[in-house]
Amino acid sequence: MSEASIDPAAAEVANFTWTKFIKNIATFKGDLSALTAPPFILSPVSLTEFSQYWSEHPDLLLAANNAGSQFEPKFESVKYTDELNQFLFVVRWFISTLKSQYCSRNESMGSEKKPLNPFLGEVFVGKWEHKDPQGTTICLSEQVSHHPPITAYSIFNDTNRISLQGYNQAKPTFSSAMLSVKQFGHALLKVGDFNEYLLTLPSLHIEGLIAASPYVELDGKSYIQGSFGHFAVIEFFGKGWMSGKKNSFKCKVYGSKTEYDEDIKPIVVISGQWSGKSTIYAGDDEKKKKNPQEFYDASRIAVEQLSVKPIEEQNEIESRRAWKDVAAAIKEGDFNKIHQSKTVLEETQRALRKQEQESGNTWNNKWFDLVPVDEDTKSSYMKLATLAQLSLEDVPSGTVAGSKDEAKWLKEDSPAQHWRFNREKWDNETEITL
């Protein structure tokens, strides 16, 4: 390709060095999620596809509804009930999702990449087909908001009567050469007719920016609250200057949030690396490293790929079809083509939004509804969040109710609303097929 044929704007992006990118982040004013990333840091995958990472081990998700199954390993000192067994299956499934969600790109691409920013209404669908009698697990993902960017998702298996729904919004900030991300949203897991679990999302930060080899490290805490009272607090921490291992965590499981508050001995403690091996101990044996048993080994268990129909059979708003030219250009390293393809797609979307505005219409979401928290009667979110003493407001996931952190993020003129899956809308869907 001759120099004369290169788009000047694309050429400027192509010459955008890593150092310039870091300086741009550091001086950028406004929402960092809106910052245009140079081609060399782009992933060929849209953020809507990330929802599948919740179930790349669908057998572990479905295991949560294996009624009467004994969780292994089993400790003689622990009094097991059906409810505790199920809660431990849920904890193991949640830990299994973390590697796919937060470091699979680092392994497949050499470093963390910025996913393509979905356009409003973009969808991603697929399924996992299982051997009888496990049926089919379906994954639905939809970009329900563009400003701010929010992705909602639902994963369900009717045969096993298990379903997951949730949404995610990331708010990044930059300080001291570190990119920090607060996650908004939560996940709700329903098992059978009555058992539900609230799962909050950890905060994270991007390390390795100065060395031009970024990777994700989780920090802060995640909580799991079960409808029968069981409560888990998962604390994340990375490698320190002198000791420790990256991707480390410690999870303590209690019979209730009250037991956690009163510092009563936990039922079990799990510790290790969420991207590798973790160990489970009974009670406070973790302190003494007494009678350790393997809990989960993320490095040993391969993921099960989601089945997605060929691009030529997809609707134009489905992720892989919509972004196919951009994705191909990223894989080829063709900066000019990346810029041109992204521009065509983004300008088309801007034109659609302008047409809607001029005609007085608004975009109608396909499968998810924005529900005020006091009208959220179809889920157990309010009950579970209250049991866990977590904020019901639109604040970072896992924020404690009445805390200084909650006050910091509260907006008086913005009543709490959460995205909820509308199964009836999916059942009546005619344009998008699996």
Describe the protein's topology.
Layout: H1 8-14, H2 18-27, E1 42-46, H3 58-62, H4 82-109, E2 114-116, E3 123-129, E4 136-145, E5 150-157, E6 162-175, E7 178-191, E8 195-200, E9 203-207, E10 215-226, E11 231-237, E12 248-254, H5 257-261, E13 268-273, E14 277-282, H6 285-288, E15 293-297, H7 319-322, H8 324-332, H9 335-359, E16 368-372, H10 381-387, H11 404-409, E17 417-421, H12 423-427
Parallel strand pairs: 1-2
Antiparallel strand pairs: 3-4, 4-5, 5-6, 6-7, 7-8, 7-9, 8-10, 9-10, 10-11, 11-12, 12-13, 13-14, 14-15, 16-17
Helix pairs in contact: 1-9, 8-9
Structure, explained:
This protein has 12 helices and 17 strands. With 434 residues, the chain is an alpha+beta fold. The protein has one domain: Beta Barrel (Porin). Strands 3, 4, 5, 6, 7, 8, 9, 10, 11, 12, 13, 14 and 15 form a 13-stranded antiparallel beta sheet that branches. The N terminus is likely disordered.
What is shown here, in short?
The protein has helices at 8-14, 18-27, 58-62, 82-109, 257-261, 285-288, 319-322, 324-332, 335-359, 381-387, 404-409, 423-427; strands at residues 42-46, 114-116, 123-129, 136-145, 150-157, 162-175, 178-191, 195-200, 203-207, 215-226, 231-237, 248-254, 268-273, 277-282, 293-297, 368-372, 417-421.
